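Troubleshooting log. The previous structure file for this entry was overwritten by mistake, so regenerating from the original sequence record. Sequence copied from the archived sheet and checked twice against the printout by T.R.
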Amino acid sequence: MIEPGIQQRVAQDATVQGLIGARFYPVVIPENPTYPCASYQVITNTPDYYLEGGRSIEQIRLQVDTWSGGTTGASYASAKAVQAAIRAVLDQFRGALPGGTQVAGIFVANASDGFLEDGRSFRTTTDYLIHFYPGT
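Regenerated output below.
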């Protein structure tokens, strides 16, 4: 499973630490969170196989959402700052993640912005394509 290594890489970055501390959650953010924060989830996992003994590689599509909300202090700029900090850590990374998983490359597939009226939350979404060697 590659997600813990991704989470650790992002959480260890000083800029990300300064913006959200440890508030980088798998799948959903907690009820009544401290903003800003971020969440991540695997959208797809597509294994590729090579014939004749070649090394297999997998690709996941990881969605990272950044959030800034609440009745006071919600800021589009805050959500965008967290998005930019996480993107700087992940985009075009290749090498070993914490935990040892070898990554062939991480690339941004797309990004979008939004606003959730119910929670009064600004949200950014960035999808990353991550190519890695399973079992490393």
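The chain has a mean pLDDT of 92. Archived copy saved in two places this time.
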